[in-house]
Amino acid sequence: MKTLTRKSGLRGTITVPGDKSISHRAVMFGALAEGTTTIHGFLKGADCLSTIGCFRAMGIDIEEKDNMIYVHGKGLHGLSAPKNVLDVGNSGTTTRLISGILAGQPFTSELSGDASLNSRPMKRIITPLTMMHADITSKNGDGCAPLIIHGKPLTAIHYDSPVASAQVKSCVLLAGLYADGETSVTEPALSRDHTERMLRSFGADIRTEGTTCTIRPPETLHSQHIEVPGDISSAAFFIVAALITPDSEILIQNVGINPTRAGILEVCRAMNADLTLENVREAGGEPVADIRVKTSRLRGTVIEGDIIPALIDELPVIALMACFAEGETIIRDAHELRVKESDRIAIVSENLTAMGADVIPTDDGFLINSRQNASADTDSAGSRASFSGAALHGASIACAMDHRIAMTFSIAGINADGETVITDSDCVDVSYPDFFRQLHSLCPEK
Ligand code: S3P
User: What is the spatial order of strands in the sheet that 34-40 belongs to?
Assistant: First the structure.
């Protein structure tokens, strides 16, 4: 449990932990490559440790020394049958990506996770894998994990995905490593492309045209050195913290700004944020920058359409930011938020409302400050009342064990009157074990 109270004047320089999506993939592709893959900047959060645990259980030797992870790959056909159920913890990425790999192995496996993971939709991978003639079933027949996979040779397909999901796309492409020809996926909007970038660096023949990605099964993958940049999804909490907390200026170093992930930067610009990218460079095939952020007078915006996949994990904290902006913010086309680690549309709306914010949940997003906007529009003087930021008050926050909800409402808590209590705060360990220490390091001692 953590209790937060109002702060001002956030100052300092921080480095956020390694990118979660890239860390998962580095271990997975390293395990399937010939030779030893070295990973620098690996995120030692619970989700990525679940991926390491699964590959160790399939005979892959993975060591940690001198701040590096060494994955001693055994090649595309080197995994061995796990003796027990593979424990995927809270990690949707582990579950959906590994399923693509397991579908093509010459053994049977079972995947299961925690209560949240075992209630998330897996039909979205069962459907395309079944089209590839994989044998994958939901053990309880509810379309969720536990999943039972009897590995077998796979048939190449073209898959028109109904959802812009990097997990679905990656699952099909990884199954494509074991298929009898070219496998391709078209998605309705481009989702994060770390799988494509990294598999290419491991030597796979993979190409992208528009929102279609095609892979040809390789003979082998070759081990690599992977530099994992800081996770923009973790940086997002501190970007918003600095923007809404009075008198703040912080520098966040070494953040991945891959365009398929950096939608929050575009939204910040549209909202009049004082945010600058410094030292923009490329590291390990991914664009990286240092991000300087200062307290800003924000204005509302509309967030919809193709940008949604590029900021899907940041929407909880973006919704908080919008409470501190002048005018209405509309977030739509984000149905996917309902099937993340929790129903993030419901939980963000409930908790923000409990803190006194003006938020209306919709089927696929939020209306924020729309009531305030309506009353300002009908102002008898004909001019809009001036807006001086959301007047939030503390509340007890139920996080449903969702790491991004715990972090979003910690940032809300330092901008609210009274005490904000995050009950299940330990869940931040899923992606950001050092979160509270770093937050504290930016807050001046009184
Ligand atoms: C991820 C893809 C996204 C994202 C998740 C990580 C990945 O999920 O929300 O946190 O690493 O591929 P979806 O593919 O379900 O959109």
Answer: 61-65, 68-74, 34-40, 225-227
Query: What's residue 389's pLDDT?
Result: 64
Q: What whole-number distance in Å separates Cα of residue 435 and Cα of residue 441?
A: 10
Q: Is 132 in the pocket of ligand 1 (CB under 6 A)?
A: no
Burial profile 292-304: b = 16 or more Cβ within 10 angstroms, e = fewer: bbebbebbbbebe
- Mean pLDDT by groups of 10 residues along the chain of 446 residues: 97 97 98 98 97 98 96 98 98 98 98 97 98 98 98 98 98 98 98 97 97 97 97 98 98 98 98 98 92 98 98 98 97 98 98 98 97 56 48 95 98 98 96 97 84
Structure-token match 């991926």, residue found: 51
Atom of ligand 1 nearest to the CA of 24: 11
Are 404 and 317 in contact by the 8 Å Cβ rule? The answer is: yes
| 193 Cβ inside 6 Å of ligand 1 | no
Structure tokens at 201: 């660096």
Q: Which residues contact 123 (CB under 8 A, 6 or more apart)?
A: 138, 143
Q: Per the structure block, which two tokens stand in for 325?
A: 């902006």
How many C-beta atoms surround the C-beta of residue 15 within 10 A? 16
What's the rounded Cα separation, in Å, for the pair 207 and 196? Answer: 8
The residue from 19, 47, 193, 313 that is catalytic is 313
For tokens 């992930």, name the residue.
Answer: 261
Alpha helices in 164-212 (DSSP H): 166-176, 194-201
Does residue 93 line the site of ligand 1, with CB under 6 A? yes
pLDDT the model gives residue 380: 41
- Domains of the chain in start order, with CATH, are 2-15+229-442 (3.65.10.10), 20-227 (3.65.10.10)
Between CA 188 and CA 211 the distance in angstroms is 7
Please check whether residue 417 is in contact with residue 392, taking contact to mean a CB–CB distance below 8 angstroms.
yes
Q: Which stretches within 177-231 are classed as H helix?
A: 194-201
Residue 110, CB half-sphere, CA atoms under 13 Å: how many?
Answer: 9
